[in-house]
Model the fold of this input.
Amino acid sequence: MRTLLIANWKMHYGPMKAGGWVRAFRRERLPKDLDIAVAVPHVSLAAARASLGRASIPALAAQDAFWSSEGAFTGEISPSMLLEFGVQYCLVGHSERRLLLGETDEMVARKAAALQVAGIIPVICVGETEANVKKGEVAKVLRAQVSAALASLKDGKTPFVFAYEPVWSIGSGKPCPPQKAKEAHEIIRTAIQKKFNSGVAENARIIYGGSVDANNIAEYVSTTGVNGALVGGASLDPRVFGLLCRTANPA
Done:
């Protein structure tokens, strides 16, 4: 299975800086056997698309979407709108949106389903808080979040991605130990198997996010069951992210 790396700029870079980042990143020497995407703010999608031109690397990703194709939903962006920019992936349920904006498992599930229908691959973010860890609830929380998302997906043949992002690790500089990440990924993969079948579970991409950088990426992608990474701060500099990509797949 090809490794998937997604740069998540979060709330950084308007159109001018976004275009510059894409142009600079396209000059990086990148491994061929690697799938790379960049999740940019909605306002920067047009600039990123223009700077990509006909290039297919990196693939364009969005950071969120609404669950309806159109309607009286002021401020929201539909999957069909994202398609007009050539978006291939879209994050849903990022921990920052769950914690700061009150997104529920049900809302995340509806968004993932709508993206699948539109032909965009949903990247469904799941993960536990530090409080969950202290209470010994990691497995319980992951199973609940994953099961809720899976219940909305139409079948196991349409692509989807899960991103395991322990909330206590994001932006903290304290990456989750690879063995712990492996255990969490196994929980997620088992839930996928229960919903669909072992074939779907084996082929499903599950990536890791949380203080990922060029120093630890190789250890994560070499861990059985970890199929890539969702990269935050280390993706803001195109050269640093380029180095991370080469480190993830030195071949």
The mean pLDDT is 95. The longest strand covers residues 34-40. The two ends are 15 Å apart (CA to CA).
